[in-house]
Input
Amino acid sequence: MIHTPPRIIVENINKDFKIYERPQDRLAEIILRRPKHKLYHVLRDISFAVPDGQSVGIIGDNGAGKSTLLKLLVGTLQPTAAAFEPTGRSPPYSSSARAFIQSLPVAAISTSTRLCLGFPMTT
Output
């Protein structure tokens, strides 16, 4: 059997969002140089590798970070910290992003879609 390198390698990917109480707090943070935000940790230490020719399904509750992970893989969002290596293609930063997402061997399924497909619910 021939060993092929993984098509996607993700190591310890993290994504945090800054949440501001009021829109003007962004400007105040810049001017006053004091934090006016709270950090919301969306993804923490996610690691996986997808071999060429294989597929991965991302299943989780609504708000679990499935879409955020896909946006990080495509390059429309930047990770807070990570090592991400797509082999064979580089993430696009143009209108071809949709085609790139469709070519990835990754699928994100929300809770409502999981129910429609008959997947069991997890607690």
In short: Residues 89-97 have pLDDT under 50 and may be disordered.
